Each structure stands twice: as structure tokens, then as C-alpha cells.
# Entry
Amino acid sequence: MTRELTCIGCPMGCTLTVEYGDGTDIKVTGNTCNIGPQYAQKEITDPRRIVTSTVRVKGGNLPVVSVKTQADIPKKLIFDCIAELSRIEIDAPVNIGDVIIENVLGTGVNIVATQNVESV
# Structure
């Protein structure tokens, strides 16, 4: 099989052509640095993403706080992660780095606040 990807490993944004069979034998062309083949391997065998969203805040100077996963999670879990975030509401105050959800969906990755929200 052949697939085209845009590498996000560095600012170059190379268009990669990836030829693969069962996922273990991968040939990558189009990269201008060594990050491209690593990115393609991961994207074909285990695609993962950082998730950014918001969570409702009760009693804060803002109605929501921005959050993100501390590391990438399997791409197939993104919508489940967003659904989990939509079900919660936290109390103010919230500080950058506060853990909002520990071990989201059993991934071993925490959801953390990326901004401060003060109590009112």
C-alpha cells in the first residue's frame, strides 16, 4: 500500500510517500531530515495525538479553562477523550499544570490545565 503524509516532525512539512505492507516493512521517501521516517513509522503503526480542549469551571472569573493531554494518546481515543472532558466541571481556582483528569481512558496520560482561572 502507498500513503502520502505531511510530516509534522520539524518546520519543513515534507510530503512523505510511505510504502508499506504489514506495517513492519516501511519505505519512506520525500523526507529532508531523519525525523520523517520516524514520524511515518509511528503514523502508520500507532498514530497518536495531543488533545487540546476546555473544561467548564464553577465559580471562576472565566467559564472554562483550557486543557491538554500531557503526552500524545492513541488517535482512536480522541473523541472518547473529548466526551470525557465534556462531562466534567471543576471548581475554581485552577492553576496552570493542575491535573484535571488523571490517567485519561487508561492511557497513563494526564489532562492538565494550560491557564489560570481565579475564583470570584
Q: What stands out?
A: The chain has two helices and ten strands. The beta strands are 2-6, 15-20, 26-29, 48-49, 52-58, 64-69, 73-74, 89-91, 99-101, 111-113.
